[in-house]
Amino acid sequence: MQAIKVPLKTRIARMTPGQIVLFCIMAAIFLWFIFACMILPILNLLKTVFFEGGSLSLDAFQKLLKSKKAMKALRNSFILAPTLSITVGLVGISLVLITEYFDIKGAKILRLGYMTTLIYGGVTLVSGYKFIYSNTGVLTNLMASVFPNMNRNWFTGFWAVLFVMTFSCTSNHMIFLRNAMRSVDYQTVEAARNMGASQWYILRRVVLPVLLPSLFAVTILTFITGLCAMSAPLLVGGTDFQTINPMIKQFADMTTTSAKSIAATLSLVLGLATMILLAVMTAIERRGHYMSVSKVKTKIIKQKINNPVANVLVHIYAYALFVIYVVPVVLIVLFSFSDSAHIQLRRLDFSTFSLRNYGELLSKTTAYKPFLVSIIYSALAAVIVGALVIVACRYIQKRRNSASATALEYSLMLPWLLPSTMIALSLMLAFNQPRWYMFNQPLIATLQLLLIGYVIIKLPFTMRMTKAAFFGLDNALEDAARNMGAGGLYTFRRVIFPVLLPTVMAIAALNFNGLLTDYDMSAFLHHPANPTLGVKIKSLTEEMGNSSDGVALTFVYAVLMMIISAVVLYLVYGRGGRDNIKE
Amino acid sequence: MEGTAMIRLNGIEVRFGDFTALKDINIHVEEGQFYTFLGPSGCGKTTTLRTITGFIEPAAGTVMVKGKDITHVPVERRNIGMVFQNYALFPTMSVYENIAFGMRVKKVNKTDIDRRVKEMAQKVDLTEQQLTRKVAELSGGQQQRVAIARALVNNPEIICLDEPLSNLDAKLRVQLREELKEMQAKFGITTVYVTHDQEEALTLSDCIAVFNKGFIEQIGTPNEIYSQSKTEFVCNFIGDINKLAPATVSGIAAQTGHSLNPEAATYVRLERIHVNDPQTQGRAAFQAKIVGAEYFGLYIKYQMEMQGQTLKCIDKNDGRQYLKKGDPVKVTIDPNDLMVY
Question: Residue B166 CB: number of other CB atoms within 10 A?
Answer without folding.
Answer: 14
